[in-house]
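User: Sequence recovery, please. Input:
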C-alpha cells in the first residue's frame, strides 16, 4: 500500500515537473516591452565646447584661411529643399535699418488668414524697431523664426562687399553677426534658430563652416522672389509660377510700401491650384 502511494506521488511529481518545464516563462525576453525612443536616435555629442572656447577655436582654425568664393550659392550653403515633391518654401527677410524696418501687415495677415506656413528671417536691427510685431509673429506656429544677422552685414572672413554693404572683416566679427542675433531670438522665443541667412545672401565658403560649428545651417535661395522688394506683383507672379518643386524662394516682409504682398496674394492661390503645398525649412531638418 505504501509502495503504490509512493509510485503515485512520484508520477504526480514527474508530471508536474514536465508541465512546468514546458510552460515556464522564458528568461530575458519581454515581447511586449517597447524599445525606448532614444535608442533609435543618433547619439548626442558627448563633448560640448564652451562658447568662449569655441570663439578662440574658430579664430585659430580659420586665421590663415583665404576664402576663394563670394556668392549667394557658396559651397556649404543650402539653396533648395531635399525633395522632388511639389512643395515650396516661402522665406521672407526682415532686413532692418533706416528705410528697411517696415512691417508688411498686409502680407502677414494674408499668410495667417490663408494658413500659409512661412519661414521668417529676422535681423537684429529690424527686431529692435519691431518688438511688438515680432512677438505677434513669433507666437504663431504658422511661422518659423530664423536668423538674418545682428547688424545686416554680409558673412565674410575678410570684408568682401555685396550691394555696397561691406561684409564682416574677420572671424570674430562673423561670429558676432551670426550668433548675437541668434541668442537674442532664442531669449525671446525659447528656441535656438536652426538657420542663418547672411545679409544680401552673399557669403564666402568659410561662413557655412563657422556656422556649422556654432550649430547653424547657412541657407540662401534658388528662386529670387522679389529682388529685394523691387519686383512688381506681375514679376513676382511670373517667377513664383516657374519655381521648381522643393524651391527656397526669397522674398521680403519689411517693405509694406512695395508690391511683395500683392504679388504673393496673387500667386499663392494659383500655385495651390497647380498642386503645390507650402512648407517651412524646419520641416526638412
Ligand atoms: Zn536682408
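Assistant: Recovered sequence (285 residues):
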Amino acid at each position: 500500500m505504501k509502495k503504490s502511494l509512493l509510485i503515485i506521488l512520484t508520477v504526480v511529481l514527474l508530471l508536474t515537473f514536465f508541465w512546468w518545464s514546458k510552460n515556464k516563462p522564458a528568461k530575458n525576453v519581454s515581447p511586449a516591452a517597447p524599445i525606448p525612443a532614444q535608442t533609435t536616435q543618433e547619439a548626442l555629442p558627448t563633448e560640448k565646447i564652451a562658447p568662449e572656447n569655441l570663439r578662440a577655436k574658430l579664430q585659430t582654425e580659420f586665421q590663415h584661411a583665404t576664402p576663394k568664393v563670394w556668392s549667394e550659392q557658396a559651397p556649404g550653403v543650402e539653396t533648395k529643399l531635399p525633395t522632388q515633391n511639389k512643395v515650396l518654401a516661402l522665406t521672407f527677410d526682415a532686413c532692418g535699418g533706416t528705410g528697411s524696418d517696415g512691417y508688411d501687415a498686409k502680407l502677414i495677415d494674408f499668410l495667417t488668414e490663408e494658413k500659409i506656413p512661412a519661414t521668417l528671417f529676422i535681423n537684429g536691427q529690424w527686431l529692435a524697431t519691431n518688438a511688438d510685431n515680432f512677438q505677434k509673429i513669433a507666437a504663431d506656429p504658422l511661422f518659423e523664426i530664423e536668423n538674418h544677422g545682428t547688424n545686416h552685414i554680409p558673412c565674410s572672413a575678410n570684408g568682401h562687399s555685396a550691394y555696397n554693404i561691406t561684409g564682416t572683416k574677420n572671424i570674430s566679427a562673423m561670429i558676432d553677426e551670426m550668433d548675437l542675433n541668434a541668442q537674442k531670438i532664442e531669449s525671446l522665443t525659447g528656441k535656438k534658430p536652426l538657420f542663418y541667412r547672411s545679409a544680401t545672401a552673399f557669403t564666402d565658403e568659410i561662413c557655412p563652416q563657422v556656422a556649422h560649428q556654432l550649430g547653424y545651417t547657412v541657407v540662401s535661395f534658388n528662386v529670387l522672389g522679389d529682388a529685394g522688394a523691387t519686383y512688381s506683383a506681375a514679376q513676382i507672379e511670373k517667377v513664383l509660377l516657374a519655381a521648381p518643386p522643393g524651391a527656397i524662394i526669397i522674398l521680403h516682409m519689411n517693405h509694406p510700401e512695395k508690391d511683395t504682398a500683392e504679388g504673393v496674394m496673387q500667386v499663392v492661390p494659383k500655385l495651390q491650384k497647380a498642386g503645390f503645398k507650402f512648407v517651412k525649412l524646419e520641416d526638412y531638418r
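The first strand starts at residue 87 and ends at 94.
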